[in-house]
Amino acid sequence: MTAPVISASSLDLTFQTNDGPVHALSDVNLDIGKGDFVSFIGPSGCGKTTFLRCIAGLETQTGGTLSVNGMSPDAARRARAYGYVFQAAGLYPWRTLEGNIRLPLEIMGFSEDEKKARVKRVLELVELAGFEKKFPWQLSGGMQQRASIARALAFDAEILLMDEPFGALDEIVRDHLNEQLLALWARTGKTIAFVTHSITEAVYLSTKIVVMSPRPGRITDVIESPLPKERPLDIRDDPTFIDIAHRVREGLRLGHADD
Amino acid sequence: MRSALPIATVVVVIFAIWTAAVVPMNIHLTADLAGRQDIAVTPETPRERQEVGAISLALQNTSIWGMTYTLDRPNLPSPHQVAAELYKSVFTVAPTSRRSLIYHAWVTLSATLLGFLIGAAAGILLAVGIVYNRTMDKAVMPWAITSQTIPILALAPMVIVMLGSIGVQGLLPKAIISAYLSFFPVVVGMVKGLRSPDHMQLDLLHTYNASGPQAFWKLRLPGSMPYLFASLKIGISASLVGAIVGELPTGARAGFGARMLVGDQYGQPILTWAALFGAAITAALLVAAISLIERKTLGRMGMRMAA
Known about the structure:
The structure holds two protein chains of two kinds.
Chain A: E1 6-17, E2 20-32, E3 37-41, H1 48-55, E4 63-68, H2 73-78, E5 82-85, H3 97-107, H4 112-125, H5 141-153, E6 159-163, H6 171-188, E7 191-196, H7 199-205, E8 208-213, E9 218-224, H8 239-257
Parallel strand pairs in A: 3-7, 3-8, 5-6, 6-7
Antiparallel strand pairs in A: 1-2, 1-4, 8-9
Chain B: H1 4-36, H2 46-51, H3 54-60, H4 65-68, H5 79-91, H6 101-132, H7 134-149, H8 152-165, H9 171-194, H10 199-207, H11 212-247, H12 256-265, H13 269-300
Helix pairs in contact in B: 1-3, 5-13, 6-7, 6-9, 6-11, 6-12, 7-9, 8-9, 9-11, 11-13, 12-13
């Protein structure tokens, strides 16, 4: 067993708000290994996004320890250890697709040849080759989100943090993107942490499913998926799949039982 | 071009109202003139006519309506008189002549453009300061707002006289008044524009560990462009107003303001109106020029225009 890529122990986070303190994360313990695909699922306010933001160094815990690649999250951020995909694609409207994917590369100071090669490679990876010169408004929502994934992949971080990236898309597009994401994960071997509202999406994608519940945000169940790595879309009708989905649903209900 | 018809309608209505207003506005003067030329008018004496309102006098003397449009020194010049004066002072005299409106336009325009450059630059710099510096955020904005509540007509003579007393004359004092009027919309627009990127956009740059200058040049500045152009359009017309106002209090000898003043003081309203229209046309051209640059710039940035 190699050392985990992301490791949280007794993690606590309390926000001070005008309405008093909000206990966003309480006693979160979790290890994410290299190459894992981990989904975080739970109702709004369970702290799944907050946990992701902690890993990204966008929030700082108030208790416990969290390490990313053996460093503090902030050091990992400065070392550009991860790519972050937000719920909205957030492409710059004044940049072409190519320009948008160049953005992190410009900031990180890659050479011109390197930029060109990387843009080409990641656009192929998300099946957007040929759309380099298009502006975001010329693309569909699904294509924009794929472009934002390409942007997060462009600088080859080993970790991909995804915060409900497909939440705003319709189910047909979402199915397609889920398939593509699995293929991409298989090809690149990245470690992926993925926040979602959808039980199906969580079970379909993940090697490990983390069920969370609110007030205070905490982990109620961690499920290691026995599903094979190779997953056609109709695996969702498989009894094993349905069993896991059932356990996730139970976990979500349990989290709600005590409030 | 879909907007051509509505615009034409408004223009036609304005000219119709103007044309109709010429008769009652000038009827007393016309009646006096007609009386001196032994044309019958009712009532007959100027004293009696003073007692009668303009509209009823006009209704009693429909035969002299034609003359109201051709007075040398009318209360309200008719559209064709203004057009003729504009034509004469633009096309029939050399642009270097003092009687050329082009000459006066250039005098005002040079102050306007210099003032606009100063004002826009100051506005952008102040906006950057306000967005990046908490103290400036708290301190500058109230003063900027206060500055615009002082009537420029009160302030302009003070600026001209004070600068004159230390030997600064000509273009610069007018440009400073222009800048004073034009920096404000630029500050307001740019502050809003530089703050337009949302939290997610800023978080994204944070995940790249981008520096402050990188966030400015790659996100905040390009994001502010639509706001900047909207305020530049307001700013440049304010600049022109500033330059004209700057010409009024000191009896400047050239410029639209001077021309208006001359028309007023020597009882030549046609001159004043021609200068007024010259200024309006200049303002329209300036705003159109900014719009053109806006279209080109935002087009190159791949942004669709709102209209």
